[in-house]
Design goal:
101 residues; mainly alpha; 0% strand
Length: 101
């Protein structure tokens, strides 16, 4: 996974977690996908930018997930998930990925 930008991994976790939960109608399975991608992204953040950056972006990942729920009530589920995934990808790129290329 070293060639995949961490922002792509994080965004995929948010999008994939929601898609799995919605398609299977089993929210815990979506949580597994969300957690797995988050763990891979966090490992990349830590390796590329250190513990403090990984902790900050990990917090942003959790906040994006949590924030997508109230946002979904205003704009809809998929638009909300897409918005927070895009925000997370942008944050990860700005802090970690753009320095690696």
């Amino acid at each position: 996974m070293t060639g995949v930008p961490t922002g792509v991994i994080a965004a995929t976790g948010l999008l994939g977690g929601y898609a799995v939960a919605r398609c299977t109608k089993k929210r815990p399975l979506g949580g597994v996908a969300l957690l797995a991608a988050g763990a891979v992204a966090a490992k990349g953040w830590q390796q590329k930018a250190g513990n403090a950056t990984a902790a900050a972006l990990g917090g942003a990942y959790v906040a994006a997930f949590a924030g997508s729920h109230p946002l979904a009530k205003k704009i809809g589920a998929w638009p909300s998930v897409c918005a927070v995934a895009g925000g997370m990808a942008a944050a990860s790129w700005a802090v970690v990925d753009r320095r690696q290329g």
